[in-house]
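Researcher: I'd like a structural prediction for the single chain below. Treat it as a standalone chain; there are no partners to consider.
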Amino acid sequence: METTALTSPSALGGLRVLDLSRVLAGPWAGQLLADLGADVVKVERPGAGDDTRAWGPPWLADADGHSTTESAYYLSANRNKRSVTIDLSRPEGQQLVRRLAVKADILIENYKLNGLRQYGLDYASLSALNPRLIYCSITGFGQTGPYAARAGYDFLIQGMGGLMSLTGREEGAEGAGPMKVGVALTDILTGLYASNAILAALAHRTSSGKGQYIDLALLDVQVACLANQASNYLVGGAAPVRMGNAHPNIVPYQDFPTADGHMIIAAGNDGQFAHLCDVLGQPGWATDPRFCSNPQRVRHRDALIALIRSVTVSRKTQDWVALMEVVGVPCGPINDLAGVFADPQVQARGLRIDLPHPQAGSVPLVANPIRMSDTPVQYRAAPPALGQHTDEVLASWLALTPPDVDALRRGSVV
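Model: Treating it as a single chain, here is the predicted structure.
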């Protein structure tokens, strides 16, 4: 499917992004900018492309049910982009990227420290050609410090950055031990920080006329996103520990067993706790000195949780959810992904989208969660096939003719 113009205005229409990143953090940032209307050109290795193209199964199935070469992983982070193949190891390929960078507003890359300097594609080289260029580098550990030259992956950073010390069953429980989050959350958060930084740099460029360099590290992002847990340590002096699904500062705020499974109760204040006690048929708990305020409930956590669990097993999850909703106590099921996409709220919000795809007919994707009244997110194109837009991008950005591109292709440059 080729990109098509849509009638609604876009927030970032007219901006050009050169995306030299692979895997998840950089592509996630690029996809967000693309959803908001930017023309994002994904530069990939000829014949191979983004590493995640090979990270299957599962693979997207074609109209006859046969597997294509498009992995579900790749599809998750590359919507609305155009794919160009260029061999950066070739001088001719490096020159092509330099020419594209001159036409770009933004460049995103996640090569290792100084990885693009050998090709003359580092910030110093490209900003000399295009002083308005906003150049975002994403690495595991940043451009400075003793670990700067190390490769960094999400799983590694979740461990080094403290997240795994907080995730998993409490010490002594069956199955206890550090646990990573079920998605590459550090990569995703880094992509979101990257897009925020890029938009801030764009705002600054409006007044200054100058681009700038953005140094983003997965480790920095992971530590920053420890949020209240980092603050608990810095203020209280004690390192937080794994607590399973419990909350370090709020009680009750965790999972509870029911007659047919489990549910989550998240009573965030004393009023909600009082309503919870009424629903559970135990109004006296709300005035019990051990439980009447959140600090007391945290102090007597074990006793209160045992009492609540003894009651919640008496009804089914959906029965409890319905009763809690009436009195405003936050409560819900623990869905698998089939349950997520069957949920009426998820369906009402349109969180699944289907885009036309040249091999599969259509591809199912998760919608962008941003809702904007005047410049809504646009879904212009499915994630591109490898090199799908090489000819059209080189023509539209660099005015290369078909014979020019054919010559590059014969020379294995593109």
